[in-house]
């Protein structure tokens, strides 16, 4: 899984929250349709063709179907406006959804590993599968790979980490269908044990991806910073604002796919408070327009030009010190 596709080093003002929500909903409903068909087909054919690997792959598709509805739920709630209890909005519903997706995948993967391990302990019980199982695995592979490419393209376009997670969920299914196909082919070639071996590999792949999704989402929920390249891009936008002499202590944290930023900007110490405030407002607007930043809190610090004296800033005689 690669979230670098969402890195933003320039501007991100092309997609409103409503547009992102619409794109997410449309692509997820496509995924629902594909996964519903695959779940029914794979489990049915797997039972009739006596293929444990294909049944495992069908269960994986079923987990995708559940995950799709989790994404739809999170996408709906993350678009709610800020309120008294959520002053920064509800964008972290997306991060919570990614965490749930990860937990779901991990649980499904562990279940697959357990089932395949039990089968491998009794290899004499493994039956020869029917050739139709191979065709079903091949069809599932093609469908999931096409779904992955479609969903990832949408995720990149609207810059949604939740959709990236769901897209790679589909790629995991494509990879698992490939493994299942190889296991079925081996079974048909005279090595029946390869079918449960394929199921075991699929279980490991699913569990590993679930752990990755969950761990990544957990870090975002505990206020992990965005990557350094994006921090530097935001800092540069602040530095380019007229009147800003220096920028320091830029801190970021994720709020769903958006970012909350705190920054100290330095302005000329001799200008008025009102002028300093106007510079801070302009700096904030520039960042909100050019980056996927939900809110920027600025702290204005005085900057003293080294080539000038500042008599007005000297402490008057008799002023008490603390």
Q: Kindly, what is the distance between the CA atoms of the first and last residues, rounded to a whole number of angstroms?
A: 55 Å
Which CATH architecture of the largest domain would you pick?
A: Up-down Bundle
Gyration radius over CA: 27 Å
The order of strands across the largest sheet is: 1-2-3
Assign a percent range to the helix content.
Answer: 55-70%
Beta-strand content bin: 5-15%
Q: How many individual β-strands?
A: 3
- Number of helical segments with 4 or more residues: 8
Give the CATH class of the largest domain.
Mainly Alpha
Give start-end ranges of low-pLDDT stretches: 7-13, 311-322
The best one-word shape is elongated
Structural class: mainly alpha
Q: What name is given to the CATH topology of the largest domain?
A: Alpha-lytic protease prodomain-like
Secondary structure layout plus pairing:
Blueprint (H helix, E strand, L loop, with lengths): L16 H33 L2 H27 L13 H30 L10 H27 L2 H28 L5 H28 L6 H12 L6 E10 L2 E11 L4 H18 L2 E11 L19
Parallel strand pairs: 2-3
Antiparallel strand pairs: 1-2
Helix pairs in contact: 1-2, 1-4, 2-3, 2-5, 2-6, 3-5, 3-6, 4-5, 5-6, 7-8
């Amino acid at each position: 899984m690669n979230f670098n596709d969402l890195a933003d080093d320039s501007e991100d003002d092309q997609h409103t929250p409503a547009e992102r929500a619409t794109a997410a909903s449309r692509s997820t409903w496509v995924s629902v349709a594909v996964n519903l068909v695959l779940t029914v087909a794979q489990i049915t054919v797997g039972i009739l063709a006596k293929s444990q690997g294909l049944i495992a792959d069908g269960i994986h598709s079923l987990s995708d179907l559940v995950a799709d509805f989790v994404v739809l739920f999170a996408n709906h709630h993350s678009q709610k406006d800020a309120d008294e209890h959520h002053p920064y909005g509800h964008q972290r519903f997306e991060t919570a959804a990614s965490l749930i997706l990860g937990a779901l995948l991990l649980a499904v993967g562990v279940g697959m590993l357990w089932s395949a391990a039990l089968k491998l302990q009794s290899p004499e019980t493994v039956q020869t599968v029917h050739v139709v199982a191979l065709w079903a695995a091949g069809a599932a592979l093609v469908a999931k790979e096409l779904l992955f490419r479609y969903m990832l393209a949408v995720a990149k376009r609207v810059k949604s980490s939740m959709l990236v997670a769901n897209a790679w969920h589909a790629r995991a299914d494509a990879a698992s269908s490939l493994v299942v196909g190889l296991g079925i082919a081996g079974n048909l070639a005279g090595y029946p044990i390869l079918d449960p071996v394929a199921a075991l590999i699929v279980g490991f792949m699913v569990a590993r991806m679930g752990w990755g999704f969950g761990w990544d989402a957990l870090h975002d929920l505990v206020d992990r910073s965005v990557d350094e390249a994006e921090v530097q891009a935001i800092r540069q936008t602040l530095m380019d604002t007229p009147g800003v002499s220096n920028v320091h202590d830029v801190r970021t944290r994720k709020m769903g796919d958006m970012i909350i930023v705190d920054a100290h900007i330095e302005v000329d110490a001799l200008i008025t408070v009102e002028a300093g405030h106007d510079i801070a407002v302009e700096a904030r607007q520039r960042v909100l327009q050019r980056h996927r930043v939900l809110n920027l809190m600025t702290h204005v610090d005085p900057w003293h030009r080294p080539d000038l004296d500042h008599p007005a800033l000297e402490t008057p005689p008799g002023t008490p010190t603390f």
